[in-house]
Amino acid sequence: MAERKGKELEISIPVNIIWDDVLMVSLSGVIDSKVAQSMTETILEKIDDVQARMIVLDILSVETLDSAVANHIIKITRITELMGCTCVISGVSGNIAMNIVNLGISLGDVVTRATLKDALQYALGQLGWEVKRK
To answer: Tell me, what CATH number does 72's domain have?
Structure first.
């Protein structure tokens, strides 16, 4: 999301509290370096504010991901770890996955899950919560 404020573009990235100690950021559209930097600042502030232990970064609706932004997202996972918060990336589309591999970007030990549901289940499980169907 972006809003015009005077001549400069103000970038707004909503970081939502999903459950106790669990945050979620849902990205969409084209992510550039400016948006990635703003997103990082917003995420770090929210983690610090609520002392979150898990954050799900859902990228299902991201249209394209260049190497700079992919590396920025990987850096977010490292930064959040230093703050005691595990980052789980969900919604990696086939196009984005192929792009990451073709660019030679290594995700290393970054936690990824196919769907938002899988990522939330993983996050809650890591915190000792059990998700069951009735």
So the answer is: 3.30.750.24
